[in-house]
Amino acid sequence: MKVIVVGCTHAGTAAVEQILTKHPETEVTVYERDDNIAFLSCGIALYLGRIVNRLEDMFYADPTTLEGYGAEVHMKHNVLKIDSKNKKIVVQDLQTQEIFEDTYDKLIMTTGSEVGVPPIKGMDNSRVLLCKSYAQAKKIYESALNYPSIAIVGAGYVGVELAESYANTVHEVSLIQSRDQILNNYVDDGLSEEIIDKLKEHDVKVHLGERVAAIEDGEQLTIKTKAGHDYKADLVIVCTGFFANTDLLRGQVQMDGYGAIIINDYMQTSNPDIYAGGDSCVVKFNPTGEMRYIPLASSAVRQGTLAGINIFGNIRKYMGTQATTAMEIFGYTLAETGLTYKKAIANGINADYVVYKDYYRPNYMPTTDMLTIYLVYDKDNRKVLGAQLFSKHEVAQSANAVSICIQNNNTIDDLAYVDMLFQPNYDNPLNYLNLVAQMAIDKEDEAVKE
Length: 450
Hints:
28% strand; 11 helices; alpha/beta
């Protein structure tokens, strides 16, 4: 069987490794228009913050890695057209400009995502930069060395991480967000305020409810907002989200309204010979059961691996995702999974939440730290819908535990009394996840009495 992989980011790399590890007789050809593969963009903030010294360390594979498995890898080759009816592709060698055709039995589409460029006048200014790829990260790093003040437009994960990195490298930082909170896809209002407080403690200026309309040139750039305010900075980094890079298959396979490829449980598109994974396609979001576009490296690796398994038959189903993520900010861990309360209500769920605030382990220990947990649940069936955790203590693995609860349709009653270890180094006799779930039970019991 001949397999062509178009694009080789996380999902593409995982697919190639899976195919050739289990089926080394398969003819696998990779076409990638960039000069690198497998770049961890989530590590950009670590590099910009001088925590990681070499940006090159953010690559966990290279073309020779895939060639070692037996793949034929063509870097700097741009696929111009896919003819799914005849199982052909048209490719251009970007170095020689030669254009040629190739054929496949199965195609795996792992073209990833592109940075969304908002309709802001002045985006073409050389001091306005985007942040996702290796080349963009290098340009940001080099530019920031010469500019003391930086404005970041967009306060999602990337924007907040960059704000922290530049605050830690003694830059003057402004974070400009169109919404009324930061990290609006990940946390609820109260936790957003806690994180904003940490940003302000490190002199980051946070401007909420400010949609940028234009960026004007000058000795300093002027960021003009629709609310009529002006902000000054030497450099502007725009982090307003991503969109699926799927134009090659438009009109040939089913896509959602945002252009992300729709897949079934086996990573198969509406064309049975074309599979997709990673940022080019949707995911099954388990808290709501919907197919949604949620670009995450963790999902990409799993989807790419499953595509590499299932091109040989419907072997292993995709379990979906809770979109579990985490970040470190000024020594605190923020970790979350599933739905926020706001998102649950917006999805028409009869949801509620409780907030736990206490020390993560006994205060007779030499040290301990405060922990905040938001637990979101469905009032009708008592299922756990989501959680957000924030502490100096490392709580990322606790978010993973709640993710498993959501995956398995566990209730607050299950989480309240599930077996968890007790050891004073790590927690109290009842783990904080038990305790926050017991708070939810108490809240529901009180509601019944009323």
